Amino acid sequence: MVKELFSSLGVECNILELDQVDDGANVQEVLSEITNQRTVPNIFVNKIHMGGCDRTFQAHQSGLLQKLLQEDSTYDYDLIVIGGGSGGLACAQEAAILGKKVMVLDFVVPSPQGTSWGLGGTCVNVGCVPKKLMHQAALLGQALSDSRKFGWEYNQQVKHNWEIMTEAIQNHIGSLNWSYRLSLREKTVAYVNSYGEFVKHHKIKATNGKGQETCYTAAKFVIATGERPRYLGIQGDKEYCITSDDLFSLPYCPGKTLVVGASYVALECAGFLAGVGLDVTVMVRSILLRGFDQEMAEKVGSYMEQHGVKFLRKFIPVMVQQLEKGSPGKLKVVAKSTEGPETIEGIYNTVLLAIGRDSSTRKIGLEKIGVKINEKSGKIPVNDMEQTNVPYVYAVGDVLEGKLELTPVAIQAGKLLARRLFGGRLEKCDYINVPTTVFTPLEYGCCGLSEEKAIEVHKKENLEVYHTLFWPLEWTVAGRDNNTCYAKIICNKFDNNRVIGFHILGPNAGEVTQGFAAAMKCGLTKQLLDDTIGIHPTCGEVFTTLEITKSSGLDISQKGC
């Protein structure tokens, strides 16, 4: 049927009959690896994998096949990337290095409060980078407090200046924005500060800030539009509340702040705001850090509570009302219980919403070219090659359905995608055992499975959990909590006690976790940890001396270094 279709279109095609060649089985195996398709016919049109018979006929009926049959040279670009964040830029630059003609479209729609930013996406402008710098500001405040115990004497009252901090951070971000633009220019990637929207197959409309429209065509497209913060949909939320889009460039100190949400964004922001001396309350609908290990999540929350952050559990806001204008002003928040009719009111200077993020996929014309999205979440389903249901359209980063929303993941996926499309490479992005860290006042690093997920996948009786509390040496002289930091590993007893979950709550958790993540990629076992000699005195060394199992019920509190 496929042969007849191409014949009827007057298209010459090369046919390899696998059952008629000596190495047919090997070819089939490589095809399966490249396409994730085990059946035949397996059809490629101008180097783009079309699929099998059904998908080819569907493409013919929609007009897509005819478009793909045109020579690539008929397009303006080999690749257009929609979105200039971490994943999009990585993909675009790698494709350009491989000799392709590439364009990046990037346009930041201002937040309801009017905040926008430069090239680089969420991580650089309103995510990881400013978050870590503000976290550092809070840690320096704690270090100042600790320093007296180490002999540092100072008499003047120490206070924090929000404006100086934000100006310094924004200056750094500005330098990063410039370096990204410079890097694109050096690699001859066309950067257009316009909003991209598909108008038909292989054609996109770019609208700039003045409303001027220009159309471009490309052989292939990569969607890397990322996500934006979600709003509550209640009276006063978009008018008076801010999100992480606004916080890091806020020109005034936020004052007494209500943080709504229990995501890592919520807890990180609440942590550093409290760390620079502000009155902070976190309003939590249900659990902390959904998707993370819940024992660790509760320990994160407990530490924050012990160090001044207030928590309102089982409440959701129903109205935000402005009482006074100002910088900051004064807001009244009405909230209701999730468990009954109770309502409460509170007065705050700033309300920060951190209740989740929505994919930026609904207003870019995907429906016009038939790209499927999850209607509920807006996420884009892809195969293990980051390819959508439309063969010439790919996606990377936070818009992917069922994948981790992390900057290094997007960068890795973007680079590898470009290498597969244009460099003849086969490597796919490995989404297993990806490490991450939550930069709360006491950092939480993890890699692999949470304890809940490990039990769900492997059953509790097949697991052994080793754990301990520990006391960082730096905390001893400072007189800080001696049984707060915590480490645990989850091992599969029937796979050579392989470490399938790694968790640490303590200072510099990100630095510690990064090293052990490489070991987990190499198949780390409990015995290998035991055989490793620790560096003393460090926090990371506790993983080389773990002896107590949860199942033993023995005391894990620490009394010495």
UniProtKB/TrEMBL annotation:
Disulfide bonds join 123-128. Its EC number is 1.8.1.9. Its cofactor is FAD. Binds 1 FAD per subunit. FAD binds at residues 132, 196, 398. The active site is at residue 536. Keywords: Disulfide bond, FAD, Flavoprotein, NAD, NADP, Nucleotide-binding, Oxidoreductase, Redox-active center, Selenocysteine. Residues 434-545 form the Pyridine nucleotide-disulphide oxidoreductase dimerisation domain. GO terms for biological process: cell redox homeostasis; cellular response to oxidative stress; glutathione metabolic process. It is an enzyme of class 1 (oxidoreductase). Residues 77-414 form the FAD/NAD(P)-binding domain. PROSITE patterns: GLUTAREDOXIN_2, PYRIDINE_REDOX_1. GO terms for molecular function: flavin adenine dinucleotide binding; glutathione-disulfide reductase (NADPH) activity; thioredoxin-disulfide reductase (NADPH) activity. Pfam families: Glutaredoxin, Pyr_redox_2, Pyr_redox_dim. It comes from the Eukaryota. Residues 1-49 form the Glutaredoxin domain. Belongs to the class-I pyridine nucleotide-disulfide oxidoreductase family. This is thioredoxin-disulfide reductase (NADPH). It comes from Molossus molossus (Pallas' mastiff bat).
